Known about the structure:
two-stranded antiparallel ribbon; about 40% strand; mainly beta; Umud Fragment, subunit A; 8-stranded antiparallel β-sheet
Amino acid sequence: MSEVIELIPASIATELNLPFVGNISAGFPSPADDFLDIGIDLNADLIKHPASTFYGRIRGNSLNDLFIFDGDLVIIDKSLQPQNGKIAVCYVDGAFTAKVLKIEPDCILLLPANAEYKPIKVTEDNSFIIFGIITYIIKAV
Length: 141
C-alpha cells in the first residue's frame, strides 16, 4: 500500500453561491449566458451527509486507470454502505488506502486500478475498517 490519504472534515458552515451556466454542450455552442442568474452551492450539491463527510487528498497512483491521480481531492461519505465496485477509503493494518471494493464470502479484496499494483486480500487476520465511500473526485486541469 503506497498511498497515504490526508483526511479533512467537511464543513458546510460557509456558502459560496456561484453562477451556474447550466448544461454545457461539448458539440455545438449553446447560449449559456441566458442562465447566469441561476446559482449553485457546491456544499449543497456535493455533501449530502455533512456529519459523516470528509475530504481527502489522494497520494499515489494505484487508481490511475480510473482517472484518479496523485493530488486529486476526493469527497468521502462514511454513512454509505460498502458495495462491490465502489471506491472506498479503507484502513488496513495501520494505513489508509483507496481501492475498489470486491466483497466475497470469505474475504474482501481491495482492487487497484493500475497494473503495477496487486490486489490486497483482507481477511480476519488483518486490522481493517472501511472508512467511507468516495462520492466525488475534484481535480485541477
